Amino acid sequence: xxxxxxxxxxxxxxxxxxxxxxxxxxxxxxxxxxxxxxxAYSANTGVKFVGLQNYIDIxxxxxxxxxxxxxxxxxxxxxxxIKLIPALFLAILLQExxxxxxxxxxxxxxxxxxxxVIIGLVFKxxxxxxxxxxxxxxxTLQLGFLKQKWLSDLDFVWxxxxxVDAWRGIGYxxxxxxxxxxxxxxxxxxxxxxxxxGFWSRLRHITLPMLSGAIMINFVxxxxxxxxxxxxxxxxxxxxxxxxxxxITTYSYQLYSNGQYGMSTALNTVLLLITLVIGVFVVRIMGxxxxxx
Amino acid sequence: xxxxxxxxxxxxxxxxxxIIVILPFYMVLINSFKSKGEAxxxxxxxxxxxxxxxxxxxxxxxxxxxxxFNSVFYAGISTTIAVVTCAMAAFVICRNRTxxxxxLYYFILCGLFFPVNYVxxxxxxxxxxxxxxxxxxxxxxxxxxxxxxxxxxRNFILSVPVELDEAAVIDGxxxxxxxxxxxxxxLKPTLVTCFILQFMSVWNDFLTPLYLxxxxxxxxxxxxVYQFFGKNKNYWNxxxxxxxxxxxxxxxxYLLGQRYIVGGLTSGAVKE
Lengths: 293, 272
Prior knowledge:
The complex is a heterodimer of chains A (293) and B (272).
Chain A: H1 3-6, H2 13-33, H3 42-45, H4 53-60, H5 65-95, H6 101-109, H7 116-126, H8 133-140, H9 157-182, H10 186-194, H11 199-210, H12 212-228, H13 231-236, H14 248-257, H15 261-292
Chain B: H1 2-31, H2 36-40, H3 53-61, H4 64-95, H5 99-109, H6 118-127, H7 134-157, H8 162-170, H9 175-204, H10 207-212, H11 221-231, H12 236-267
Helix pairs in contact in B: 3-12, 4-5, 4-7, 4-9, 4-11, 7-9, 8-9, 9-12, 11-12
């Protein structure tokens, strides 16, 4: 059989060209322009090389771009912990058999299909200090002392963002765990039960090892999502109060809007480097798994 | 006795979480029928007077029809093109494992992680005269979903027996006939999954149109809503009605294609 003839290379042409031109080249070009003073005004003056100046600015300027970078990393780590652990237990709970499991699954997944912009707007109104549902509910329950300025108090704004993010994301993570749990043979648990294994030891010795595929995919999705997060922060707080909840992507958009294209691409390139390091690591692990099969 | 208590407790946990999920939906829905003043208080009570006209008002003021058709255009066409072409590419990558194809697979896979650099993307679009045009936005959406589609579809093709190809070729089928007549029907589950997931993600996307369209004629629904919110900050009844109308299409797609979503999310992941 002539493989070249029945599997022609031209089948690859369209995706490959689109991917290279509109995905890869902008990233490479971004790395290139991050060493220039490219801005909205350079149409007249031309683009000049400035070496590492943009990166020096990022790490030393008083605009605090560094906190945008650390916030991005912090968001990635914490938002994933907040979603993964409850989602795992929720999936186990549903898997062990609850009446109406299908309905609950449908319902819990529902938030994650909605646009972030919408969720942001809805929670902006729910978390409003004076008229928001949350504060009013607290008051009705005689818990008025728990009322907070959820989106403008520095101590609470990140917690609110994590809360909203979890509201949207837990169902999604849970669904992937559920599919993983479905592939574990029931006999394993029966055998463990006969041996007298309790909940925690079953979790540790059967569920977690058997779930490694689902855990892996949740990590990958979660990490890439966290590093690129934009919509929810842009709509909920727009980086505020002050610059407290700014992340790389929001700074990058701001710089772009101000016409500082060079700085904007430099920040984007920092993000690219972070994802590159993590991505190479993840692809390696996935490649290894494939070899084992 | 203990088992019963356990059951009740589980049911209570699920019910409680369901309420947390539903409450925001309920609040939005109920307030979308209220007058401006009443909606501003955001109470959960039923409206004293039902204003169904809010919806008509919003459709006109918020330019929702235009947004709707823009969204359908972006999501429908970009997803169709991407899924079909990626399926072809994934087929060849999976079946003819030369060094080049293996490399190309991992090369495309990297796109799962990369952030898109919109600033330079605009520059690239400029070269092709595609800035601020529907065509440009469409092409960007197509390129952005290639890694996911190739990855998911290739994983599925692994389970389609090669003997089928051999039999078809012996019967005299060329590559196009082999792929579209013999293979494609077998790929239906994964193609539908990719279509639904990517359709929803384009529908929900906000960042791409935010960077790429300065002309409100090009806005998809998400942008229209946000713009409408910016202009009518105190009219929560209208904003809520707008939100309902924007969410409705994705919710319908979700409920119709639910089993494909759950199956497909995990097809690549949980098999091992």
